[in-house]
Amino acid sequence: MMMLLGGIIGAEIAPSPELATLPIASMVIGVALSIFPVSKLMQAFGRKRVFIFGALVAACSGAIAAVATSQQNFLLFCLSGMMLGSAGAVVQQYRFAAMESVSESLAAKAASRVLLGGLVAAIIGPELAVIGGILSDQAYVGAFFFLTMVSLIAALILCFYREAKIECNPTKEFTGTTGRPLGAILLQPRIWVAIAGATLGYAMMSFVMTATPLHMHHIEHHSLADTKWVIQSHIIAMYLPSLISGALVVRIGVSKMMLLGLLAYVITIVTALLGHDLLNYWAALVLLGLGWNFLFVAGTALLPRCYNKDERYKVQAFNDSFVFGAQAMASLSAGWVIYVLGWEILLISCLPLIAALLLLIAWWKLSKSRMLQKDR
Q1: Neighbours of 280 (CB within 10 A)
Q2: Which among 288, 260, 301 is positioned nearest to 203, based on CA atoms?
Q3: pLDDT of 101
Q4: Is the pLDDT of residue 177 over 90?
Q5: pLDDT confidence tier of residue 169, bands split at 50, 70 and 90
Q6: Sign of dihedral through CA atoms 135, 131, 66, 212?
Q7: Which residue of 120, 126, 300, 376 lies most exposed, with the fewest beta carbons within 10 A?
Q8: 3-state SS of the chain?
Q9: Any stretches that span the bilayer, and where are they (predicted)?
Q10: Positive/negative CA dihedral, 283, 284, 290, 291
Q11: By the 8 A CB rule, do 235 and 11 touch?
């Protein structure tokens, strides 16, 4: 809902066009700033209480967004986005909770199943945004009241969540430690592949997706209905592959899965550069969603192989701070790049990031090959 409306509302009430995507960027900044506090809260109070608290924060953010939209208050709207991002930092822990509830061999499937919830979001979110605009006297205000209602329903459902019992390193009881120092964990090449796969995948996806409604609706003058259809299709493409992506990771491996994701991103850029017709936007955003899913699921599945269970909170927090810090910068810069440099430059600027991830995967494979040779 916020991804569809944030940039459009921002373009209408922001003091300058370059700040149009600031509400979306505020949401992502909220995620990035809340990663470590959420991790600490879960260590202290457990996942369930923090999950419920996060849903209540999302409900409050919806009410504030409704007031901000009604009063045309840009700063208040950005604040609601930041609060929604803080709730999103809690939501990002769902996938780790799911992976902890199953054996290691099923972890990738568990993560991908959680992401299937995004299919419901893809269908319901944009529809509620449009319906809310129709039912309300002021455009979009009703959409955020729906956001509050959905968040309260989520809080109710989370009351039935039961935490998995994690058996940690027994030395923790006697020494008070939480596993190896983070610096030692980060010496593994594969952990940087896991972090980079999710980080660069999220950053590029957010960069292009945040700019698309602005370019379609405000610059190329496609209708809101067409823009909604493209974003809706994109979100479906982000989450529908979760039906098979977990099994694909098990079958073909993490590195090949990431390469497929990067290939989808390259085709996305080429398709979007070929024209500004509705079909170009639609095909590019569908491929963008597919590439994101492959990269994010692969990176998420690889990460638990890099740490012990008693190290999980600090490594997960470190990973997500990279992922959502990069997404925040991508969202924040998307509006400026669109208005100052243009759509084509925005797309082409993603190519160095694709090359960087390819080099990281090659480094991991090379170091892995050298280790095998030493063992022999």
Answers
A1: 15
A2: 288
A3: 83
A4: no
A5: very low
A6: negative
A7: 376
A8: CHHHHHHHHHHHHCCCHHHCCHHHHHHHHHHHHHHHHHHHHHHHHCHHHHHHHHHHHHHHHHHHHHHHHHHCCHHHHHHHHHHHHHHHHHHCCHHHHHHHCCCHHHHHHHHHHHHCHHHHHHHHHHHHHHHHHHHCCCCCHHHHHHHHHHHHHHHHHHCCCCCCCCCCCCHHHHHCCCCCCHHHHCCCHHHHHHHHHHHHHHHHHHHHHHHHHHHHHHHCCCCHHHHHHHHHHHHHHHHCCHHHHHHHHHHHCHHHHHHHHHHHHHHHHHHHHCCCCHHHHHHHHHHHHHHHHHHHHHHHHHHHHHCCHHHHHHHHHHHHHHHHHHHHHHHHHHHHHHHHCCHHHHHHCCHHHHHHHHHHHHHHHHHHHHHHHHHC
A9: 20-38, 50-68, 74-94, 114-135, 141-161, 191-209, 229-250, 257-275, 281-302, 322-339, 345-366
A10: positive
A11: no
Answer yes or no: are the C-beta atoms of 258 and 361 closer than 8 Å.
Answer: yes
Alpha-carbon span 339 to 96, nearest angstrom: 38
| Per-residue confidence (pLDDT) for residue 168, from 0 to 100 | 46
Superfamily of domain 2-161+179-370: MFS general substrate transporter like domains (1.20.1250.20)
- Total-model pTM: 0.71
pLDDT at 140: 78
C-alpha–C-alpha distance, residues 8 and 140, integer Å: 10
Q: Write the Ramachandran bin of 179: left for phi over 0, alpha for psi from -120 to 50, otherwise beta.
A: left
pLDDT tens, position by position, 297-318: 888 888 888 887 777 778 888 8
Q: What is the pLDDT of residues 361-375, one digit of tens each?
A: 888 888 877 766 665
Q: Are the CB atoms for 264 and 215 separated by under 8 Å? A: no
